[in-house]
Design goal:
Chain A is mainly alpha-helical. Chain A has 9 helices and no strands. Chain A is elongated and about 65 Å long. The chains are: A mainly alpha, B alpha/beta.
Chain lengths: 256, 254
């Protein structure tokens, strides 16, 4: 019994220590961004890596998400004779919830894992130490550009997700199931408010910070060798995804 | 001058540096020798502030770097260049980008001036026509040369070499030692070379310190170390299996 309490206590202490270290890492990153964000070229390269190179996977997932929303929404609304509201249902679901969350999860899988692996390998091969010996601040080159780039890229990717998703819903709802195109877009125009778009953008921005922060942190404090990098990468994707979903709930309850 | 005073460092209850005292004189090549796993690289990392000691002082030109913050420490690090054991080249950059990187980030030189300096440094280390190659396309010896070119480019006052010849064949090993000697003659810096290349290291060093069990066991000119009667030093230099250094114990320590 005593052993169990001992283990639980040590687990809790470890968790608190890890959370403190993560918070310190975030504060140090934000301080670096404010004090000296680095050359724009480093940020543009990251926007290209995190943003532009994620467009394909975002378009692909968005189109199928929109299509399945169109399909499911149609059959649900048809039960109440409200097929005309399909456009509004698809758009609100995407703009308020699915666009920001799914685009964040896609970016976590595609770019977040790569960020952790890149920083982790740099750490174990002493490349980060090499930067420090040159009197250069590793955060300025490895962390800040990625956080700034995520802040810029995530809302843009979310916007693409929303537009493509709405078009996917249109294809299924209007072209396949015969919903009136005027009703599809009119319902959308009537029900979507600026507040909904704003909430989606806010979510995307905060998800961008969460993904880049967690993934950079996990890479920076990687374990030993290839196995350490592999563990960190897995942990980065899982932690980021879980945090995105938890934060989404809190943010939704505040922004509603 | 670098001065380490009573430096102690412990990892997981294992004492790696034990109240170590060492003076690195200005303008000379000092070699730190000792068996593998004795903390030679750890010692080097303390000199440049990559590690902080548990206790003790590390003075660089009279300034204790163990108490400095980031900005002040970076100011001291500008005096240093370092060649890592595995060269630590940025693997997503080409050879040219690797060598040019510190110049681009730390100087206001024009691209043409940077190009000239990079090519001059690469030529000095005997590498031409490899600008566009990536580190994983280079041999071990070539990587170390690129690392050296990158280390000397900002004209540092002190260069730290962490086992610069480990993993190289005897000819490349000798060529690398010669290159360090030539670079030292040309640029005139203070050098600390961590190595266990015996007896080749005695050809380039002006002072040799033997690290064993976290302490500097003996220090002196190469000929003094070579003629030492200390049983540990003698066994290490001759590479004998018989003596106070027990291979089995060392394996456990590694």
């Amino acid at each position: 019994m005593l052993l169990l309490v001992d283990k639980l206590g040590s687990l809790a202490l470890g968790l608190i220590r890890e959370m403190g270290r993560m918070l310190n890492f975030l504060l140090a990153s934000l301080y670096t961004i404010v004090r000296n964000p680095g050359k724009p070229i480093h940020i543009f390269k990251q926007v290209h890596f995190i943003g532009a190179r994620s467009v394909f996977v975002i378009v692909l997932t968005a189109s199928f998400t929109g299509m399945v929303l169109g399909l499911q929404g149609y059959y649900s609304l048809a039960k109440f004779g409200a097929e005309g509201m399909l456009g509004a249902a698809v758009a609100l679901s995407l703009i308020r919830e699915l666009g920001p969350v799914l685009s964040a999860l896609m970016v976590t899988g595609r770019a977040g894992s790569a960020i952790t692996a890149e920083i982790g390998i740099m750490k174990i091969t002493e490349q980060i130490d090499a930067l420090r010996t040159m009197a250069l601040e590793p955060f300025k080159y490895l962390v800040s550009p990625k956080i700034l780039a995520s802040l810029l890229a995530l809302p843009l990717l979310c916007a693409i997700f929303d537009v493509v998703g709405i078009f996917g819903g249109y294809l299924v709802g209007v072209k396949l199931l015969g919903v009136n195109p005027g009703a599809y877009f009119h319902g959308m125009e009537k029900s979507v408010e600026w507040k909904d778009v704003y909430s989606g953008i806010m979510k995307s921005i905060s998800f961008g910070i969460i993904i880049s922060w967690v993934c950079c942190y996990k890479g920076y404090y990687v374990g030993h060798g290839a196995e350490g990098v592999s563990r960190s990468t897995t942990s980065a994707v899982v932690t980021s995804s879980v945090l995105v979903l938890i934060w989404d709930y809190f943010l939704t309850s505040v922004l509603l | 001058m670098i001065k380490l005073i009573d430096v102690t460092k412990t990892f997981d209850n294992q004492v790696v540096l034990n109240k170590l005292n060492l003076v690195i004189p200005t303008g000379k090549i000092t070699a730190v020798i000792g068996p593998s796993g004795e903390g030679k690289s750890v010692l080097l990392k303390h000199m440049i502030g990559l590690m902080r000691p548990d206790s003790g002082k590390v003075l660089v030109d009279g300034e204790d770097i163990t108490v400095l913050g980031h900005t002040a420490l970076n100011r001291v690090r500008e005096k240093f260049g370092m060649l890592f054991q595995n060269a630590a080249l940025f693997d997503s950059m080409t050879v040219y980008e690797n060598v040019a990187f510190p110049l681009e980030e730390k100087t206001g030189l024009s691209p043409a001036e940077i190009r000239d300096k990079v090519h001059e440094a690469l030529e000095h280390v005997g590498l031409t026509g490899v600008d566009k190659k990536f580190p994983d396309e280079l041999s071990g010896g070539m990587k170390k040369r690129v690392g050296l070119a990158r280390a000397i480019l900002l004209d540092p006052k002190i260069i730290l070499f962490d086992e610069p010849t480990t993993g190289l064949d005897p000819i490349v090993c000798r060529a690398t030692h010669q290159l360090i000697k030539d670079t030292y003659a040309r640029y005139g810096f203070t050098a600390v070379v961590v190595s266990h290349e015996i007896p080749e290291i005695f050809d380039i060093a002006e002072q040799v310190a033997m690290l064993y069990q976290g302490e500097i066991l003996e220090m002196g000119k190469p000929e003094e170390i070579q003629n030492s009667t200390h049983p540990v030093v003698r066994q290490f230099i001759t590479g004998s299996l018989e003596g106070p250094i027990h291979l089995y114990e060392r394996r456990l320590r590694m």
